[in-house]
């Protein structure tokens, strides 16, 4: 049995909307990750199974390693199908906002969602959600939005109707937001849910391979290059940093998603508790900052204070406008500030 973490009043409220709704739109954050796509498609499969006209809309493209997911071909990319997506959003009876806590996280989609008359529900696990939905289901203690979607569907009494396809998507989101159940994954109930998903016939081992073992040769070589030539380890701060310039990306035929997960690699070095990955984003003319930590070091605080960002305690990010060298220096300045906390014996 699962703990009833979502308030009954919210379940009842959503169930009422759900009964009356014909057209439902699901939106998720910019540069969607496994949990954004997994939770959205998990919910989408369920809604479709209940005869709803449902659509998933995300601001921009998602990585190739998620394209095997059932239903992924039906996802609308807002930057490509803006007009059609705007129509769907405007006529939706219900808009489900998944895996983000502020409208700014859905980028160019934000104005349409904000202006829409449909009833809005937030299902998310990021800290401090903004108040832009009538129902806010926000649980930062839960490691993925996909898990919340599973819990919502079950609490509404539809576990039996959950298809294998929905289960595959939900599992993918739970797996990717916990690094294959290696962090934020000590809650026993995660494994109860996995067992329930397995009962739907999913092949969790195959899902792991489809997500994680699909590297291109160039990504593998890029990984070798950054680890050999670009990794900086700050021993006295128990921290590490990797940067990747636009020139280096083109040298290794970089395509979107090629650096996915790079930020986690330095955490396998003994004692490293904070890792930073800086990537020049030519599309947006800025430097994308990714941070990961282990234990109780709040990398979201560092992201907010130095890189206009935020996120979770152990996984956060931000943005920097300036040269790569300046971004690197700023990270080193941040390290100086947090040195006492980082250097403290664990
Ligand atoms: P990633 O490193 O995978 O891009 O992001 C990890 C997490 O950091 C995301 O799930 C999100 O919570 C947070 N994050 C990433 N970039 C930003 C950003 O620019 N602003 C804020 N507020 N959070 C971010
Ligand atoms: Mn998530």
CATH-assigned fold name of the largest domain = inorganic pyrophosphatase (n-terminal core)
Order of helices and strands: HEHEEHEHEEHHHHHEEHEEHEEH
Distance between the termini: 35 Å
Count of helical segments? 12
Number of strands: 12
Give the name of the CATH superfamily of the largest domain: inorganic pyrophosphatase (n-terminal core)
Uncertain residue segments: none
CATH class of the largest domain: Alpha Beta
Strand content: 15-25%
Kindly state the percentage of residues in helix: 25-40%
- Rg, rounded, reads 20 Å
Could you give the order of strands across the largest sheet? 3-2-1-4-5-6
- Average pLDDT number: 96
Q: Which geometry do the CA atoms define? A: globular
Specify the CATH architecture of the largest domain: Alpha-Beta Complex
Tally the structural domains: 2
Explain how this protein is built.
Helices cover 40% and strands 18% of the residues. With 346 residues, it is of the alpha/beta class. The protein folds into 2 domains: 8-212, inorganic pyrophosphatase (n-terminal core) (Alpha-Beta Complex), CATH 3.90.1640.10; 217-343, Diaminopimelate Epimerase, Chain A, domain 1. α5 packs antiparallel against α6 (164-176), α6 (164-176) packs antiparallel against α7 (188-198) and α6 (164-176) packs across α8 (204-212). It starts with 7 loop residues before the first helix and ends with a helix. The model has no long low-confidence stretch (mean pLDDT 96). The structure holds guanosine-5'-monophosphate and manganese (II) ion. Guanosine-5'-monophosphate (5GP) binds at residues 126, 263, 290, 309-312, 315-319.
